Amino acid sequence: MNLTPIELIATAPMGLEAIVAREVRELGYEQVTVENGRVSFIGDALAICRANLWLRTTDRILVKMGSFPARTFDELFEGVKALPWPDWIPEDGEFPVEGRSHKSQLSSVPACQGIVKKAVVEKMKQQYGAEWFRETGGRYVIEVSLLNDIATITLDTTGPGLHKRGYRKLVTEAPLKETMAAAMVLLSRWRPERPLYDPFCGSGTIPIEAAMIGWNLAPGLRRSFNSETWPLVPQELWKQAREEAYDLVKDDVPLEISGSDIDKEAIEVAMAALKAAGLSKEINLQVLPVAKIRPRGDYGCIITNPPYGERLGERDEVERVIRQLGSIYSQLPSWSAFILSPSRQLEHYMGRKSDKNRKLFNGRIECHLFQYLGPLPPRNRTSEE
């Protein structure tokens, strides 16, 4: 069992680095460094399992193999060759190389990928005494990332991005990524004892992610990962991490999570996702225009991602439904609202200025999370005593 320290990188969408770092610390890893688009931390092989199973707002978990100056192809080749590839990749391992370059003299990404592949092969030849490698075994995706003439070399432990939880087989036209939906819930002040309503729920991503947070369901429990086939991350560690996750589920917590959308087909897609996530009985969804929503309960949270109206003729409709949402919200004095939108006019349409807003990127679209902060629920004296 490999419990030696490993430097891991949790990649993060721009604007979510602090949330990812908080999640990493909550897993018990304290040596955390936050940079643009990534959060580095020190863990071990078990940390690879836990991070992939638990982190809700990161895209993928990478092993940092090394970092060094690389202004020439020779420097890149020698730097890569010096890394301990046979410690990680067995003789039959498949090791494709991906790459990117920014503000670096080595600007040809395909050429850099070729050099890295050649250097890894040379190192593997030294270890295994083979002239060529069949690459029929587990998958070890290597990435070379060049920034300001510094090469960072990583191994991807995840495979398909972590937003692919496994519950969404169908998608609507413009789905919100599961990682962003989870971030919106974590950035809100919602707790499982408070009602939650999404009036533009689309394929149901925000309600589902909220329910998973409310029940402390690890988002990666229903999927597999590249590193599950790696000898350095043995099956017993994956079994241990999964058993830990199942033991921490709180599915006896009552939830008041609802959503609606005017699009009947979107609700059908959402219902299929609810069923796949095992949450059909916990979340109430219906086909309903915004003007007719009536969120129930006190101290609830509206958490939503309204349509953007990017096409001609749609903007007037978007303005109309946001004004309707503003009118409904004005009748909910104890509620808070968290609305993700690229529109600079959203506060004007809502009829009031937000208490806070935070810049986030939904894919490549620059948005703001507009936060309308209602009162917090009174503290439960009984639970405090």
Automatic annotation (TrEMBL):
Q: Does the keyword Magnesium apply?
A: no
Key words of the record:
Methyltransferase, RNA-binding, Transferase
Question: SUPFAM superfamilies per the record?
Answer: S-adenosyl-L-methionine-dependent methyltransferases (SSF53335)
MF annotations from Gene Ontology: methyltransferase activity
Recorded hits in Gene3D superfamilies, A to Z, give: 3.30.2130.30, Vaccinia Virus protein VP39
- Biological process (GO), any one: methylation
- What InterPro entries does the record point to? DNA_methylase_N6_adenine_CS, RlmKL-like_Mtase, RlmKL-like_Mtase_CS, RlmL_1st, SAM-dependent_MTases_sf, THUMP_dom
CDD domains documented for this protein: THUMP_AdoMetMT
The THUMP domain extends over 47-157
- Top-level taxon of the source organism: Bacteria
For this entry, the protein name equals Class I SAM-dependent RNA methyltransferase
Protein species of origin: Paenibacillus gyeongsangnamensis
